[in-house]
Amino acid sequence: MNSPSNTDSSNTKETPTKEAITRLLQSSQVGDKEAVNQLLPLVYDEMSNIAHQKLKFERSGHTLDTTALVHEAYFKLINHDKVEWKSRAHFLAIAALSMKRILINYAKRKQAIKRGGEYSRADIELERIEGPSQMNESMAEEILALDKALERMQTFNERGSKVVDYHFFGGLTWKEISEVMGIAPITVRRAWYSSRLWLRRELMKSELPNISLNRPA
Amino acid sequence: MGSKGLFVTGNQKTMDSDKWKKIERICYKARQLEGKKQHTYIKNACAGDDDLLDEIHSLLEQQDQQRLKEPLVQMQSSFVFSDEESVSKQTIGPYRIIRTIASGGMGNVYLAVRNDDQFERFVALKVIRKELVSDEVLNRFYEERQILASLNHPNIARLFDGGTTDDGMPWFAMEYIEGKPIIEYCQLHDLGIEEKIDLFQEVCSAVQYAHQNLVIHQDLKPKNILISPEGTPKLLDFGIAKLMSLEQNADPDRFQNKLMTPEYASPEQVRGRAVSTVSDVYSLGVLLYELHTGKLPYQFKEREAASIEQTICSTIPPPPSEVSDPNKLKKDLDQIIMKALHKDPAERYTSVEQLANELKRYQLDLPVLAQDDSFPYRATKFLKRHKWSTAVSVGIAFLIMAFAIVTYIQSQTIKARAIEAERQRDRAEQVSTFLTDLFESVDPNKAEDQSLSAIELLHRGANRVETELKNQPRQQANVYLVISDVYESLGLFDKSLDLAQKAYALQQELFDRNHPQVARSLNAMGWLYRQKGQYKKADSLLTKGLAMRQQLFGLEHLKVARSLNDLAVLKQSRADYAATDTLLQQAIEIRKALAGAKDKSVGTTLSNYAALKYRMGDLPAAEEKLREALQIFQSDVGNKDMRTANVMTNLAAVLLSQGELDRAEPLYRKALDIRIKLLGRTHPDVASSYAHLGNLLVYKKQFEEAEGQLLRALELRKNSLGKHHVLVGVNKRVLGDLYQKMGAYSEAEKYLTGAVKTFRTKYPDGHSRTAETLQLLGEVYMETDDPTHAEHQFQRALNIRLFNFDKTDPRTIETQLALGRCLTKLEKFSEAELYLKKSHTAAQKTKDQNPKLSRRAEQALIKLYENWGYPTKADAYRTKTK
């Protein structure tokens, strides 16, 4: 066949770590914290590398479309033949945490730019990220406020703050979160319900005019 | 609700995780309630803790806010991970397009994914422009697709699927390979000659494999040979080239098109002549040339058909050693490559295997076959001898393809004949022993490490028996029963039953009515129906089996004891406890006498006997029998046997009934461990262990862990036993109970309704399980303030109770009491009075056993009269209670 071949060399990463990452992911389901700690930076790096191309801030509905971003990272990092549904949930969880970091870094940079840029020179991590110009200011503020509130909540409600990380920042389903955290779906739902109430109230307290994560139609 | 938000700051300082847990629980339950009810609930739940009360109200005020309502980020609807929300992306067949890999003249190549529930597959999806392919060619391709799809080799990208899009474009889904073309890969990694040859050998093995399956590639070139990051070559597009080239040959105008990459095409291909496996040998020769020299044998400056054809068919390329560093390449390699590149197909290596062997000889420094000094002379001579015609002969190519298919079918027939011949030989006895040995290693009681491949082995074995032992039905039946036993112990009841039935059918032809083997089949089938929950069928088969064995072996025989035991277990499932008792006692007697008091079989029957005693409420007797049984097993087989786990489970159940939760729990956990080790994670017995543990945890009020265990059990049981199995119903009932305790009423309703449905089909005459579940369901409706629905459930429950038990049974009283309270709430006072009085009278009769019950009946009556407007009557009961 004369038509183009199956390869996509521009997007193909010569990565000996792929196997390693797959293995890590498999062990992370067995609850190996170390594995998660090793995976997170890898996934974060990969995702922030592609973020500026793939992360779309024009939202479809009310959510950020990170599909392409997550997909790309998943595809590059994981040997998908060897990964079953459970591992995918674990990957998604790690992607959610990465996503949160990326968004927070965007937001910080956005604010740094607003304040005059002293932030951006100092932080190499942020230097790589090109997206913040697309993030609107109110979103940046809201994300930072939420992050702070989450930190406060963590002191007495660790489970809830994890559930929020996974569901809100990662869009994981109850079932996926239940798989990842090893707790029952109803427990996840319950944790989400009250944590959300608490966070809403916190955000109200720090209320800044006209911000809402609920995007106008 | 005003500005209670101001309380927040103060409370937050004192917030700790214990308090938060309370808040979580109360808020979650409160969200299902409304207005005054919610208020009352929260007030009661806070039990005077005003801080808590304020905090909860303050939080619930946030309920209607939009913020944080849905995830900020959408990943679950990504096509990679889920198909829950079908994103409106382009799909082709069952595949969703992710992105374009490449597009070209022939069509596009996409990265696509297929995901079903637990399954995900990435593919390279090629869509071919319709106008380039005729229907006829396409149909032939589809015919051949089965063969292509059967190519299963680690170095060949699989063809998974193919079809036509809605607008009629043919597509194929192939294994998606991430990798680099072989030449690029070798340069990138700077591979040496030896390494290149090693890699090339792998390519050869793949091509050779395809040839053995009568598939010719026809378009071998670096772009179609990718090396994965791990260094494994993968060949793409097997058989697809044929589709293309055929079509192009059919249309002389598109001749140009075909020659887009003519560098790897053999003379016969360029001329449109019949291609064969040696055409692939030629292309491999070109590849080898390029691998070692970095250059192609022919360079085409003009892309003009006639000149290209001229070059390929009549120019002899310079030997590889001349175009590369002469010190690097030995002359032998030159000869090998040039022989592969011979213009005359008959002068090339006759197969890829031969080429590969030759390379191996070269690597081992052995003399190669191609060593022939007169090669250039002979080649030239050949060219003079043959005047190639330029006619494009489509017919021949078609013939070749048809031939390939015919040959494929023939080869299958030959294989079948060979099997036939083997079967003629009388080796059935051997087969039987062989299979028995083989499968015993799969029996979880014998093998500690059960692997999936062992089960596969079993399936394969079962299929082999079907064909290979066709002419020895007697042996065939025996082996079926052996495999059936193993399937049964693996929990694969349907497969097991299927084989037992096959065995029985064979035996019907072979034997008179009574025969030990027939009895064995009957017993096996009966037991399996019991396992599947079809008790009526099970009963008649087991009874028949027992009678046959008693006739054949006499009353005292170990086989008879086995039948007695099995039938007893069934009788107990059917709640015929008297029969169970007799049968088990007989079985124990026979086994003790013939096998010895310490034999495992005695342990098994003792354990069953204990289960009966337990069922009949004689807990101390049950515990005693179980301890005896456990001792027998532990001294004999230790903790690595199913029976040990079974006895532990039963003992735990007895302890649980005696309220000894803490002594029961470790036994359940240990039993679960043993079962997982022996049976894997999906066996129905493992599901039972999860369910038991979950049930216990409900009693211990560890609801969250309980939920996890119970849900796991339910899922496993649905999968292994089917959705309508009694145990699925039981499991749902326990879950419903749990959710009610957790305050998740809609979940509770869902599971309880499901359980009732199961029980009603299983026990059309009514069963105490159905009644229990209906009563629970009624209570759920009461909790959610829906007495109308509750009444219905209680009525149904009571009907069954009265049918099963007499009026003074505490279970009957409980149901009447519940119904009475419900009717009070509905303000159907006179009806309520009727039931409450009945329950009170009955409760007073059994006051000694259950003093609380009569007190509760009195309280219900007091409430009734108060609401009804008869305070004096209420007072009368008040004095009674005191």
UniProtKB/TrEMBL annotation, chain B:
TPR repeats lie at residues 645-678, 687-720, 771-804. SMART domains: S_TKc, TPR. Gene3D superfamilies: Phosphorylase Kinase, domain 1, Tetratricopeptide repeat domain, Transferase(Phosphotransferase) domain 1. Residues 95-369 form the Protein kinase domain. Coiled coil: none annotated. InterPro entries: Kinase-like_dom_sf, Prot_kinase_dom, Ser/Thr_kinase_AS, TPR-like_helical_dom_sf, TPR_rpt. One of its GO terms (molecular function) is ATP binding. Keywords: ATP-binding, Kinase, Membrane, Nucleotide-binding, Serine/threonine-protein kinase, TPR repeat, Transferase, Transmembrane, Transmembrane helix. SUPFAM superfamilies: Protein kinase-like (PK-like) (SSF56112), TPR-like (SSF48452). The chain crosses the membrane at residues 388-409. CDD domains: STKc_PknB_like. PANTHER family: MITOGEN-ACTIVATED PROTEIN KINASE KINASE KINASE 20-RELATED, SERINE_THREONINE-PROTEIN KINASE YBDM-RELATED. This is Serine/threonine protein kinase. It comes from Fodinibius halophilus.
